[in-house]
Amino acid sequence: MSYALSGARPIGTETRARVMAAIKELGFERNAAARSLAARRSHVLALVLPTVAGGLSGTLGEFAQAASQTARDAGYHLVIWPFDREEHAEVRDLVRQGQADGVLVMEVSLHDERIDALLASQVPFTMIGRTAELDGRSWVDIDFERTLTDAVDHLADLGHTTIAFVNHSQHSLDTGYGPTVRARDAFHAAAVARGIHATDVTSDESPLAGRLTTSAILDERPETTAFVTMNETATFGVTQALRDRRLRVPDDVSVLAVVTSPEVGAMYHPPLTTMRAPGHELGRRSVEELLAALEGTAPREAPRLVTCALSPGASTGPAPRR
Amino acid sequence: MSYALSGARPIGTETRARVMAAIKELGFERNAAARSLAARRSHVLALVLPTVAGGLSGTLGEFAQAASQTARDAGYHLVIWPFDREEHAEVRDLVRQGQADGVLVMEVSLHDERIDALLASQVPFTMIGRTAELDGRSWVDIDFERTLTDAVDHLADLGHTTIAFVNHSQHSLDTGYGPTVRARDAFHAAAVARGIHATDVTSDESPLAGRLTTSAILDERPETTAFVTMNETATFGVTQALRDRRLRVPDDVSVLAVVTSPEVGAMYHPPLTTMRAPGHELGRRSVEELLAALEGTAPREAPRLVTCALSPGASTGPAPRR
DNA sequence: GCGCTTCGTCGAAGCGCTTCGATGGTTTAG
DNA sequence: CTAAACCATCGAAGCGCTTCGACGAAGCGC
Where is the HTH lacI-type domain (chains A, B) (predicted)? Predict the structure, then answer.
């Protein structure tokens, strides 16, 4: 019977039809536990992410959607399994106990204990993001270098010469959160390449922090005419600070929000120009990577770095003449 | 051995200690599939929600967090299982195949096919929200009646006499989405009770829709001095429309966002006064309900309706003197 | 026509647990 | 002092599948 469904061995066409008919008639359902036990495979992929509590951005939704679909097409279930960052052991045990066959790990930092635990136990996993060390690790990530370069180019092309970058929190920088570190470095490299006066600051993930930070930048460098932000929550504060000072967007100051979703950009007035986080692509690719590792098939060579595309809004424009 | 872990039968203290030691030494892990097969119980609760794609609000994060913790304390895993709304059969089969023991269903509408499918298959479930019919169904929900009453009272106490309510989309109303229907009715009842001039409108979930809607209200009823909103995304448009008309918040117009999170309120300037969605409480209660159904224990009498508490911001104030 | 491979089917052996009945040692009540 | 009651442990029977080996029935070339 098993063969009729899986096709692992040749089966007579008529026999298969009879099996199918019987299944339908009796309302038969294959028992997942028995299946997993006998086949040593749960057909479950766990998407673990620390503390869903922060709220899942639109990007995560897109990601999950695409990942789920990709998994389903391959005969797997994708489930989102909430874990705190400290629960390395629990994440690892998911697979060791056979609850899941492999793990997608989000919010990876450059040195991530969860990854160490997974490696030590030989648990199949794929990182969304990258640790500093990459040997023997499967991953996909946003191309921050490219994204920040494109962002700076976009603004430089518009004539801006002094650009500020509002990054994630100082804490994320200190703890080696990949995106924060990579974006900062890429921003500076791009600024140098274009001869831009660059300022970069970190900001906590709150509108208030973004407002204060922005205000401080404007005090210190009043010649700043463009902001690149990579901090959805703080961006709300950035625009508030500009409004406080009667600076018009985009006439006086341009704002470009990177690694975010246009939906968030639409919450502003005028709608923000953004560089959209490629949630969909990332979700699909990450599952492909993981499945390749699971099924031992050679990971078909596909780019692991995905870029953010510019999504035009109305918040960037030519630098004002002074 | 099983008994040593589960305590289902008396076990010598010393024997248990020996078992534990051996387990630790050998790095033994109970196999989930075998466990499920033998015990006919997966110890998994599935939180199904349609199209995560919309992005998971902070409230959902809170909910998941609390639900996950409650489940864990009872020896269950809570997993988030993304499904489209149309996939009733798949949701049902999760339990029939033994992938999960029970289901938490979010975003329930008054007539929900998913619920019909679950009922027909005798699958244990708890609804977050309510169908029109409630017989033999386990549920928890936000107390929209109470919340809207409190909202209207809050504004009436401040002297407002003309209040507009910005609800979810017309589509959600037409398809019988419980919150939309209940909130509208409750708003009107509360307005009548306080002798308030009430307007209610629906708005698509977009800032632009919110802006246009608000603009229309102000054209039609310029004497409106307060807005109650229950549409996180559209609320962004509401404040934009007020700003367009040089109306100050809260001096000229008050805004009260209900069933939302203070974090979202903080994205505005001034920070919005909100009535916070009780995600945490809802998550805990819903798992309790489901477990009671699963384990056949009498559902300890606890309120199924949870209220939204007022979280003071700076967007509501006394009605302006005219 | 005979041995050869190929195809389709059947039967049976586990997968690693939980659970139940049986066993024997120990305590308590009559 | 004996019968009943209790406690702790052992052994074995599945749970419902997958997978493998074996077997008969065809198909092939010489």
Answer: 1-39
Average pLDDT value for chain B: 91
- CATH number for the region A39-142+280-305 comes to 3.40.50.2300
Residue B278 contacts by C-beta under 8 Å, 6 or more apart in sequence?
B142, B306, B307, B308, B309
Residue with minimal CA–C1' distance to D15 is: B38
Contact: A97, B30; criterion CB under 8 Å: yes
Minimal Cα distance from A242: which residue of B? Answer: B269
Contact assignment for A33 to B98 by CB distance below 8 Å: yes
Query: What is the third-level CATH fold of A144-278?
Result: Rossmann fold (3.40.50)
Q: Which nucleotides of C are covered by protein (CB under 7 A)?
A: 7-10, 14-19
pLDDT of residue B53: 44
Nucleotide nearest to A39 (CA to C1'): D18
| Minimum distance, in Å, between the CA of residue A230 and any CA atom of chain B | 16
Distance CA A52, CA B63 (A): 9
Identify from B215, B267, B280 which residue to disrupt to test chain A contact, counting A C-beta atoms within 10 A and taking the largest count. B267
**In chain B, % of residues over pLDDT 90:** 74
Residue B273 pLDDT > 60:
yes
Distance in Å, residue A16 CA to nucleotide D20 C1': 20
B106 band by pLDDT with thresholds 50, 70 and 90: very high
Which nucleotides in chain D lie less than 7 Å from some protein C-beta?
7-9, 14-19
What is the per-residue pLDDT for A52?
52
* CB-CB neighbors (< 8 A) of A54 in chain B: 58, 61
Q: How far apart are the C-alpha atoms of B320 and B322, rounded to whole Å?
A: 6
Is the peptide bond prior to A270 cis by the omega test (within 30 degrees of 0)?
yes
**Residue range A240-253, pLDDT digits in tens:** 999 999 999 999 99
Domain B36-142+281-306 = CATH 3.40.630.30: no
Contact B52 A52 (CB under 8 A): no
Asked if B45 contacts B78 with a C-beta cutoff of 8 angstroms, the reply is yes
Q: Do the domains B36-142+281-306 and B144-278 sit in the same CATH topology, yes or no?
A: yes
A123-135 as b/e: b if 16+ CB within 10 A: bbbbbbbbbeeee
Rounded to a whole number, what is the distance in Å from the CA of A19 to chain B's nearest CA? 18
**Domain-wise residue ranges, chain B:** 1-30, 36-142+281-306, 144-278
